[in-house]
Structure formats: C-alpha cells, structure tokens
Write a structure and sequence with these properties.
CATH architecture of the largest domain: 3-Layer(aba) Sandwich
Strand order of the largest sheet: 4-13-12-11-10-5-9-7
Structural class: alpha/beta
Radius of gyration: 21 Å
Strand content: 15-25%
Number of helices: 14
Length: 422
C-alpha cells in the first residue's frame, strides 16, 4: 500500500498522455506526482495508499455540497437505473433548464452541453452569428476552456490581437481574438474605439478564477456593459465557476449587471459532465434548429448528469442559508491565512487564493509576480500534513458545505507550519 500511488503513476504514464487527463493534475507546478484518489466523502478524499486529505479542490468547484452527497448520488443512481443515455429529449432536461432560467433571469432560453469549454465556445459562435461580426474580446489570464479561438494570450501591447496560447493553434485562429488586461476598462474603451464595429462580443469571468481569484474593480463590469451596448456588441459572462457559488443564481444578479449571454458549468452538474449557455430569447433563436448557428452533442442533456445537477440545485434552492455558512467558513480560513508572512489573500465568498507575494493582485500580470517555488514548497508541506490544495498557484481554493470549523482549524494549523517553512 505504501507505494500504491507511485505504482499507479507509473502505470498511468504508460497508457495516458502525461499520466493525466487534464494537465494541472500532473503536479508539474508543485513537484512530485499526484496521489491517485480511490474514494471521497464529505470534505475528504482518500488515495490508493489509504491516506485521507482535507480537500479544497472539490472537483474544481463543482462539489459545493461536498463529495458523495446522498441526495445527489441517489438521484444519479435512480436515473441510471432507467438508462444512462437516450440521445432523445427528456422532461428532466426541461425541468433543469427552467430551474436555471428562473434563477438567472437573463437566461431566457437555455441550451445544455457537456462542459464549460463547449458552453463558452458555443456562446462565442452564437455571438458572432447573431451580430455578423468576426472579433471577440477576452481578458489576459481568463480561461474559458480549450477551444482554439479562446486559447489566446496577450501580444506585445496592452490591448492587442491575441497570439496562440498553445501549440497546435494556428495564428489565423486567434487573429480575431483581442486580449486586454483584467480590470483595465480604459484599455477596453481604447480597443472599442478602434475596433468596435467589428467586435461581436466580449467574454469575461465576472470574478476571475483562473489566474487565482481576482475580483472585479468597483464599476468595472458596469463599464463593460456600457461599452458593449454602445457598440452593439454582446457581453458574455462566463459563470462556469461562479454560477450558484455565492448565491442561488449568478454574480450578475448580485451586482445588477445583465449580460446578453451566460455560460454555466461546475455546480449545475452535481459532479457530472454538464454545462449550459443561454441568454435573451432573440439571441438564442439564432441557434439551430431555429436559426443558422449550429451546435450539437450526442450526450448533451444526459439523463444521469441532469438528475445529479437538478438534485444539487434543488438542495441549494431549499437551503439558501447554506451560503451564509459558506461565507463564514471561508472568512475564518481567510483570516488565518492572512497571518502568513509575505503573502496576500484574495477571497470572494467560498473561493479564495493565497498568493505568495505582498500584493495586491488585481490582474494576471500582478498575479504572475507570485513566488511559485515557495508555493510549491508550501503545497508539498500541506499535502504531507493531510491538506489537498489545487496544485497551482493560479487556481482557486473552494470551501464546500461539507467543511466544518474544525476542518478549517486543522487547515490553518498545517498552513502556519507550512508557511513558516516554505
């Protein structure tokens, strides 16, 4: 049992590219190799060697109720007993779509898909089809899935055409993608003055979660809404991470900024592959089979995923007091982490990032000033002490409803030890 993780790692590398099916899982940023997880329950995961960890990854934010929640698992099991996929419509899909639309009024019509990548890729295509314009704006450090046109990074200017962010992405594919620093509304205004008539839409995480947690500056999102409306472009909120994370609904409802299109994922799938995009009725009517913008998927609206997602959302709807508890637990965690030397903490609700730098961190370039080697040492020490963190400086930690105050105290005790020695 003692070497079970190493054996699993060596076997995985023999048959799976890089040993993992998603790159960050390989622990390249923190060193060593990952524990291979056998089972999970509540706030804890257990690896092949029988070691149990407090988990702050939570399947990257999907498991707001914790692992193996009885209601979610029961709903999925019951649905699977009737058949795992039909390739045909079900009433359950309509129920879930209605639940989403009622929680986020801007999503008057919904399309279910299988991943956040699919949702964002499709929303961008729909924006282009609806406006008949070719260009898209995204923000530096923002990740909206691995579709070619969104794997763009900033070029030499502050507001510039993107350059490929991955091998295998032709320059021509990102030629119509502009990249602007997050929280730089001045850069957005300058870009739209030059290119506004050609810009179909802008996609933005209303609270950035893929450069670490970075909240929007006051008024930033409202200014994006004003700029896009002025130029006839569509505003797309990527709420794949933030949807249902802070309230029963989206960040858009909290701040009063209404996007034209929204993408969702993570929480709405209850731990299964499920995502969605939606928006105003007249825009969504451009989507096939009603309109000319094509998107399809064999497993879209999969009955098992839909059942699990609906069960998780229904629980959140009936237990909205849970959000106040998540806020309290995360605030306790933040307060303790702020005591660590030469670090700063960005937190919004139940997601946070501990940056190994003085801060503040307001955009990707500032996040990039973090001490990645120190974070890697801290991560290894936390893992040794039984706390499983995202294996990258530039990811969010997620607190779930399954965490307890004792869990947070255990985490902070390990962090004080690890932070002092990292």
């Amino acid at each position: 049992m003692k070497r079970a993780n190493r054996v699993a790692w060596n076997e995985a590398r023999r048959w799976i590219c890089g040993g993992v099916n998603s790159p960050v899982r390989a622990f390249r940023a923190v060193g060593g190799f990952p524990p291979f997880i056998r089972r999970a329950s509540g706030s804890r995961i257990t690896d092949e060697e029988g070691t149990t960890y407090l988990d702050y990854v939570g399947s990257w934010g999907a498991l707001i109720l914790g692992h193996a929640h009885a209601g979610v698992v029961g709903a999925a099991r019951e649905a699977a007993s009737r058949g795992t996929t039909y390739g045909a419509p079900t009433v359950a899909e309509t129920r879930l779509a209605r639940m989403i639309a009622e929680a986020l009024p801007s999503m008057e019509r919904v399309r279910l898909v299988n991943s956040g990548t699919e949702a964002c890729m499709s929303a961008v295509r729909l924006a282009r089809g609806a406006t008949r314009r070719p260009e898209i704006v995204k923000f530096e450090g923002g990740y909206h899935g691995h579709a070619d046109g969104l794997l763009a990074r900033a070029g030499s200017g502050a507001a510039t055409f993107g350059v490929p962010g991955s091998a295998g992405v032709p320059t021509a594919t990102v030629r119509h993608t502009h990249v602007v620093p997050y929280n730089d509304d001045g850069g957005v205004r300058r870009l739209f003055r030059r290119r506004g008539r050609r810009i179909a839409g802008m996609i933005v995480e209303p609270i950035a979660g893929n450069m670490g947690v970075v909240p929007p500056a006051p008024g930033f999102l409202r200014e994006l809404r004003r700029i896009t409306e002025r130029h006839g472009s569509l505003l797309i909120f990527d709420e794949v991470i933030t949807g249902f994370r802070f309230r029963f609904g989206g960040v858009q409802d909290e701040i009063g900024v209404v996007p034209d299109l929204t993408t969702l994922g993570k929480i709405i799938g209850g731990g299964f592959p499920l995502a969605a995009y939606g928006g105003r009725r007249e825009i969504m009517r451009r989507l096939a089979p009603e309109g000319p913008v094509y998107q399809a998927g064999t497993l879209s609206g999969n009955p098992v995923a839909v059942a699990a997602g609906a069960a998780q959302l229904d629980y959140l709807r009936r237990h909205r007091e849970l959000y106040a508890r998540l806020e309290s637990l995360a605030a306790q965690l933040e307060a303790g982490l702020r005591q660590l030397p030469r670090t700063c903490v960005n937190r919004v609700g139940s997601m946070l990032t501990l940056f190994f730098q003085k801060g503040p961190v307001r955009n990707f370039r500032e996040a990039s000033g973090s001490d990645e080697r120190r974070f890697a040492r801290f991560h290894r020490m936390m893992l040794r002490d039984g706390v499983y963190l995202p294996p990258s400086q530039y990811e969010a930690w997620f607190v779930s409803a399954a965490h307890t105050r004792r869990d947070v105290e255990q985490t902070l005790h390990a962090a004080r030890e690890g932070g002092a020695r990292a």
